[in-house]
Amino acid sequence: MMGPAHSLSGAMAWLGVGAAAAAADHAMPWQVLLAGALICAGAALAPDLDHKSATISRAFGPLSKMLAGLIDKLSEVVYNSTRGRGDRRRTGGHRTLTHTWIWAVLLGAGFSFAAITWGRWAVLVILFIHMVLAVEGLLWRMARVSSDVLVWMLGATSAWLLAGVLDQPGNGSDWLFEDQPYLWIGLPIVLGSIVHTLGDAITVSGCPMLWPLPIAGRRWYPLGPPRFMRFRAGAWVENRVLMPAFMVIGAASGVGAVMLAA
Ligand SMILES: [Zn+2]
């Protein structure tokens, strides 16, 4: 899928988690519901940091370009050194390491660790990164190179405002883990990456999300539904069917989460 579909599916998934949490008696304050949906929308672009021309790789200028180059190399090395008998050797690491659930969990755990260890400044950085990505993902081709600085300013102000709101007592910095403020912040990040891999799995190329589990002699087996249910990234199914569905389901879940919490 392309940027906007990934981001929308991320926001929808977090709103779904919000509804489930409310049903399970751990209702999120609406501030967490909103901040989490935005973080998850941004995080749903993260796996493509293994590809230099992806939205995320140009979202932070030369810095993200460089990081994308490194991640691509790292992914290639990990792929080639862990491939099974049935996996062909390859150059370039796109859609390998960063498209696995292990990577998703490590990434989220890393951000949670940073948030509880370094406090407010880490939270601001995490919010900034994900707000910029959310704007890039949701606005996509509207936010091109000429507007980079504007998007960074938007990201910085919304990070600052959100952190200020979440910090107020009862607003959710301590949601789910009472003694560890912001430990939850890794959850929308894990979820965003996982939703991204599912989105890629329903395109023609599939996604090796269960690495290193051996499947049919391969450790990088590109999982996905049967062929006839898959489509090309950016196809009409994505824009006309999936994206409207993500919006409707996301909105319904959001309303459900707020009503159940009340
Ligand atoms: Zn991808």
Largest sheet: none
- Head-to-tail CA distance between termini: 36 Å
Fraction of residues in helix: 55-70%
Mean pLDDT: 93
Q: Please state the oligomeric state of the protein chains shown.
A: single chain
**What is the H/E string?**
HHHHHHHHH
Q: How would you sum up this structure, described in words?
A:
- The chain is mostly helical.
- It is 62% helix and 0% strand.
- It has nine helices and no strands.
- α1 crosses α6 (120-139), α2 crosses α6 (120-139) and α6 (120-139) packs across α7 (148-167).
- The longest helix has 26 residues, at 236-261.
- The protein is globular.
- The two termini are 36 Å apart.
- The mean pLDDT is 93.
- Bound molecules: zinc ion.
Write the layout of secondary structure elements.
Blueprint: H1 3-23, H2 30-43, H3 55-59, H4 61-82, H5 101-118, H6 120-139, H7 148-167, H8 186-201, H9 236-261
Helix pairs in contact: 1-2, 1-6, 1-8, 1-9, 2-6, 2-8, 5-6, 5-8, 6-7
Residues 47-48, 95, 99, 196, 200 line the site of zinc ion.
